[in-house]
């Protein structure tokens, strides 16, 4: 029988069996080699996803029949027996069974069978056209287990990050894909990985192809912690043999050497979950944010961000930023008795005042600032002290942490999610009470594409959203993205000319009017101007209320 059908002790079944196996497997055998913290979070979310759907269908008396269950058990038993003929896999499974204190039968019935049951039931549900509200059901099921959203968010963000991740700017001794892998230096000055994960899809095309060939020629499992040494040994053999791949082999061996000293290889105590036991700063010593700081963050995210976030996302970003900044402030203050000194604060404020005075020479920015101060009924000093200076202080303290090695581990990292969670708990700034407000903001107008599409003076790239009409009868794009998505290559060149000619800020809700006005002043091809103007008018309708 299914473990959930047998018992009402949902939490016990989830924690004690499936969850610890899932975390172990993800850590050691997943092709996406991630940190212990990331594995702990994703293992929990995946477990909730699978058990939530099974539970939802069980409530409707939809389960695997005993006949199908016995058939799947037989297939899984045969598969694990076959896998254990491989000496390395046999060693892996025996070590896992011993460390997790489970039997082979536990592994089959309470892990593999749950995965298979979820796979079959999900496929049958989709084939039957059943409507399943995945997010709502998973949130409900997590609450049923006594797992709060704040705990899940705490796990999701509890990642050690490098303050000074330098991307590919270091003098690396090998070729690297400039789109994926990041590097930094540890306290000893050695180059280490700074990327969130490590797998062959982050390698250069030549490196990834060689890893794939090694996998197929040697019948290896995909590159993971479990198989890492196998691949490393195979690469060393390739290097000894000497062939046309010698440069790629050499680069991969150097990359593997860096990965070997950067990656955690043992899961250790990360297996243990303490549901809803979230760490906290001392509330009596807490430096707490002001409401106006949060409100200004939200407002500027919405109006100044070039990614054009909706109100829901602007609110979420602002709340995340408050947790991030004040988590750091209190981490340094309570754990290390460090704050920004008064001289640095005074100098920073003077620099901010000078910068603001210069920007006020731009009439568009001055109007924006006048609107901000009027909307929030605050003086300019409040905007400076409770918003701009807070942001600047955060950046200065990050620099101080980096330069003086304060609160960093041997790899020059700190756990941003851990400090943020401590602040949220101490300040009673948890996510649970923000859901209603956040979801109430998701009221964007749904715009259907017009059929046929209107004739315009410009052409839209094939992959871009189509044209529709909003409730005001204005042409708008059916989906909202940064402007570059809607520009053809030729339009992008002309747009760049406009930006460079007038030294324009990034395009946002705030600056769109300035772009349209300056386009009218641009001395350039009138046809191209007309085309871009029509596009900008439609874009303005799309991003403004």
Report on the structure:
The radius of gyration is 28 Å and the shape is globular. Strand 7 and strand 8 (475-477) form a beta hairpin. The chain starts with a helix and ends with a helix. The protein has a two-stranded antiparallel ribbon with strand order 1-5. A two-stranded antiparallel ribbon has the order 2-6. The protein has a two-stranded antiparallel sheet with strand order 3-4. It has 21 helices and eight strands. By secondary structure, the chain is mainly alpha-helical.
Query: What oligomeric state is this?
Result: single chain
* Class inferred from helices and paired strands: mainly alpha
Helix content: 55-70%
Give the averaged pLDDT, no decimals: 90
Number of helices: 21
- Low-pLDDT stretches are 3-8
Order of helices and strands: HHEHHHHHHEEEEHHHHHHHHEHHEEHHH
Strand content: under 5%
Cα gyration radius (Å): 28 Å
Give the overall form. Answer: globular
How is the main sheet built? 2 strands, antiparallel
Query: How far apart lie the N and C ends?
Result: 55 Å
Counted beta strands: 8
> Looking across the biggest beta sheet, what order are the strands in?
1-5
């Amino acid at each position: 029988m299914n473990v959930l059908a047998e018992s009402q002790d949902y939490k016990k079944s989830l924690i004690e069996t499936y969850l610890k196996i899932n975390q172990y497997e993800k850590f050691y055998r997943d092709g996406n080699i991630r940190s212990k913290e990331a594995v702990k979070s994703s293992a929990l979310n995946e477990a909730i996803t699978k058990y939530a759907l099974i539970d939802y269908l069980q409530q409707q008396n939809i389960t695997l029949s005993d006949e199908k269950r016995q058939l799947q058990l037989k297939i899984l038993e045969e598969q694990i027996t076959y896998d254990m003929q491989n000496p390395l896999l046999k060693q892996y499974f025996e070590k896992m069974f011993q460390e997790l204190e489970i039997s082979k039968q536990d592994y089959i019935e309470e892990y593999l069978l749950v995965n298979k049951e979820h796979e079959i039931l999900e496929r049958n549900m989709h084939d039957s056209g059943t409507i399943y509200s995945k997010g709502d059901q998973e949130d409900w099921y997590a609450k049923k287990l006594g797992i709060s959203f704040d705990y899940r968010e705490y796990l999701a963000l509890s990642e050690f990050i490098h303050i000074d991740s330098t991307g590919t700017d270091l003098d690396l001794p090998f070729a690297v894909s400039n789109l994926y892998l990041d590097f930094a230096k540890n306290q000893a000055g050695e180059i280490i990985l700074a990327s969130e994960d490590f797998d062959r899809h982050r390698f250069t095309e030549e490196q990834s192809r060689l890893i794939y060939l090694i996998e197929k020629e040697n019948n290896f499992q995909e590159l993971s912690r479990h198989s890492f040494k196998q691949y490393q040994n195979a690469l060393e053999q390739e290097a000894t043999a000497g062939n046309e791949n010698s440069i790629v082999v050499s680069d991969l061996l150097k990359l593997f050497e860096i990965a070997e000293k950067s990656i955690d290889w043992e899961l250790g105590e990360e297996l243990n979950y303490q549901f809803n036991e979230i760490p906290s700063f001392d509330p009596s010593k807490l430096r707490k944010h002001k409401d106006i700081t949060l409100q200004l963050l939200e407002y500027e995210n919405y109006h100044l961000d070039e990614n054009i976030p909706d109100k829901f996302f602007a609110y979420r970003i602002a709340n995340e930023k408050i947790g991030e900044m004040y988590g750091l402030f209190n981490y340094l203050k309570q754990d290390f008795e460090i704050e920004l000194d008064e001289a640095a604060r005074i100098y920073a404020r003077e620099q901010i005042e000078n910068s603001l005075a210069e920007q006020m020479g731009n009439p568009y920015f001055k109007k924006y600032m006048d609107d901000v101060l009027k909307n929030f009924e605050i003086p300019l000093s409040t905007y400076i002290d409770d918003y701009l200076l807070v942001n600047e202080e955060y950046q200065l303290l990050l620099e101080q942490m980096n330069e003086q090695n304060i609160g960093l581990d041997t790899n020059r990292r700190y756990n941003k999610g851990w400090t943020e969670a401590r602040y949220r708990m101490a300040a009673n700034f948890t996510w649970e009470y923000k859901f209603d407000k956040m979801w109430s903001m998701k009221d964007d107008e749904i715009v259907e594409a017009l059929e046929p599409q209107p004739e315009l003076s410009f052409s839209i790239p094939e992959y871009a959203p189509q044209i529709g009409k909003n409730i005001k009868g204005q042409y708008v794009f059916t989906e909202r993205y940064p402007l570059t998505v809607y520009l053809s290559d030729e339009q992008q060149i002309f747009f760049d000319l406009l930006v460079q000619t007038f030294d324009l800020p990034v395009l946002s809700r705030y600056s769109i009017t300035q772009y349209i006005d300056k386009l009218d002043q641009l001395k350039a091809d009138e046809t191209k101007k007309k085309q871009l103007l029509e596009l900008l008018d439609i874009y303005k309708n799309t991003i403004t209320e």
